[in-house]
Amino acid sequence: SLSGLSKSSYLRGQELLFIIVSTRLSKPSPLARNSLLSLANNELFGKLPASMTGNFTHLLYLNLSFNALSGEIPASLAQALELTSLFLSNNFSGNLLSGFGYLQ
To answer: What is the CATH number of the domain that holds 38?
Structure first.
């Protein structure tokens, strides 16, 4: 499970929304269409749950850089077909998923 998160934010259109979550992110909400999500530099650690990335189908921008995320990139992240910007610096291990070849 993903740990270390106390607050997160994302953009929906022009409106900034804040979501208060527990220190264990176990049941994330689906993101709105044209969403941006940046959790960079938040001291997150552990594995990114596949259930979380399965909600990213309409995500345009994802930044998870400079945390301490481990394991492989979840295959469900390749289902974010509207994703145009992806930042994973200093996280994860293993190979880049073949599904990322379909991203525009």
So the answer is: 3.80.10.10
